[in-house]
Description:
The complex is a heterodimer. In chain A, a hairpin with a 2-residue loop joins strand 8 (206-209) and strand 9. Chain A has 15 helices and 14 strands. Helices cover 59% and strands 15% of the residues of chain A. Chain A has 2 domains: 23-75 and 300-430, no CATH class; 85-298, no CATH class. Mean pLDDT of chain A is 85; it is low at 1-21. By secondary structure, chain A is α+β, with helices and mostly antiparallel strands. Chain A is elongated and about 105 Å long. By secondary structure, chain B is of the alpha/beta class. A 6-stranded mixed β-sheet of chain B has the order 6-7-8-3-9-10, with helices on both faces. A 4-stranded antiparallel β-sheet of chain B has the order 2-1-4-5. Chain B starts with a helix and ends with a strand. The interface between A and B is large, with 41 and 46 residues.
Amino acid sequence: MSSFGQTASLPHALGVRSKTGSGAWVTTREAFWIALEALRTHKLRSFLTLLGVVIATATLIVVMSVINGMNLYIADHIANLGANVFIVSKYQWAQGYEAWLKARRRNQPIRVEEFEFLKENLSGYKNIGAAASMWSDDNSTRYQGHVLYNAEISGDTPSMIDIGNQKVESGRYITDSDYQHESMVCFIGHDIVDEFFPSVEPIGKEILVNGLPFRVVGVAEKIGSTFGQSEDNFVQIPLTTYRKYFAPRLSLDVNVQAYDAQQMLALEDEARALLRARRHVPYREADNFGINASQTIMDLWDRLMGSIFALTIGIVAVFMVVGGIVIMNIMLASVTERTHEIGIRKSLGARRRDIMMQFVIESVVMACAGGGIGVLLALIVSEIVDHFWTSTVPLSAVLVGLTLSSAVGLFFGIYPANQAAKLDPIEALHTEN
Amino acid sequence: MSKERDGQTIMETQMASASSGELQAPGDGVVIKAENLWKTYDMGEAIQVHALSGVSFSIDRGEYVAIMGPSGSGKSTLMNLIGCLDTPSRGAYWLNTHLVSELSDDQLAYIRNKEIGFVFQTFNLLSRASALHNVELPLIYSGMPQKDRLEKAADALRKVDLADRMHHKPNELSGGQRQRVAVARALVNNPSIILADEPTGNLDTATGEEIMGLFERLHQAGNTLVLVTHEHDIAAHAHRIIHVRDGRIERDERVD
């Protein structure tokens, strides 16, 4: 019975062990030390092992960054037709090829009379305007021997300045008087100024647009570029002048600005109903014109990005699994290689979970290092992409990348770590490496 | 928490065994008590090999015991049992009041950590770690915070006269120095016994004598030493020799 007293002293001794409280932390720190040591001694091997995870993480982050960058861009530039603006034009944008082929046969150009009709009959819009333009390599703009072939030449109503995202920097926009008298005046973008009038006041100068002389009456504020396409490379003249000299029957884009976002849909519907009535489109038939808004572009954009992202997820998943298997393989090799060490550690009192922890942490640290390298690579690639196009690395992408790679290390590290933890200490000690 | 759970199970196991009444736990002053230990290996086809067939002995605190025997005598098996690296097929083994023969893997690891200091023939140091870190290892697995750990490990190295070699790696040390690091590592957790397996086997005679001198000092300081060897000269340093042959104790003699 006296032995009871002695055995009872045991939990007390154990209590001392756990009272330090930092037991798990101490062995975990040792595991980190071993993991970093292993990475340090096998630099090349570790790097090759991690290539899969590096590529997977980098791919994920770069794609997320490019999509993110483009989203910001789209929101900023393309979708910004002006606040609460929709455009009535010959075609509906962003539709499938089949639909477009049909529309090409059926749709009618928007006429000036139709613009006037909408202007008269639409109820309660903030602004309405029309513009016509034609992209053509034959377009030419000249000033004293300098020639520009790629400027966008358009005919606009005076109200267009209040609708789009252009602002007058100096001079004035096209006026009602210009519009009525088919004046030979133009309002030019900043690229034209940079090209023709780098050090001269452009207002009052005369430039040749497709061979005809136009007097510069105003200059627009600089806008910037979208996907490398400058938004400042334009010459705007009165719509009436444009129709008289360049393209009398060209379809118009009628820009309608609503007072607020809530009014948009109602106004679009009204415009559609008016135009269908005027054109006598039968009840069952589709519109033979298009009504476009920022939302049209955003919808298409979201669909497109959704597919790209889904594809990326698939590719990244494959990379990650391959990377994980490579890590598992190298960890199994590492366990075999360090069997003797495991024996030593076990003889000194390492428990299964200590050994398990050691190898799992090594695997996670390795995968996480791969993720880290992937992040750096992604930052570099993203920077380069941003130079030519657009890319902004969101913090969430970095976090997702690191978390995912750690998770892969954890998942694929468990099996080898368990193999190590299961080793018999005697056999492990007798294994010579 | 989990560590306490280990302890809890150890206690419960032992109480269960003690209450079964068949086994008599050792009294005070006894560090090791082995009762009728058997170790049997199944070699398949109903062939059984008895590495140990009914070994009983006990070792008191402060004793310096050599276990001697030729290869194949079962002394390695006995050493594995004493060192809690293995459990017997039959019989009971107490180490400092823990009934080791009934314990699980992790409980054995705990006992090895707390109660046993190993000194191996091949030193078994981690080659990539410094002497200091090697000595720290048992303290790491007992969960001691770094500050206390470094202090204790440095102390242990000082005891074996390696204070100036703490930050050297094993491959920068001589054989004798390596074995002294191993001795420091064995000492650092204040174990109940120091278990040395052919500690001079990889050393030249002079260095071997130096290590045996160190063991004598540890013995004088009150440590319990168990030495496993096949060499008479080495066994002669101990104060008691247990001769093992064919899985049995052949002779148990005191030397003075």
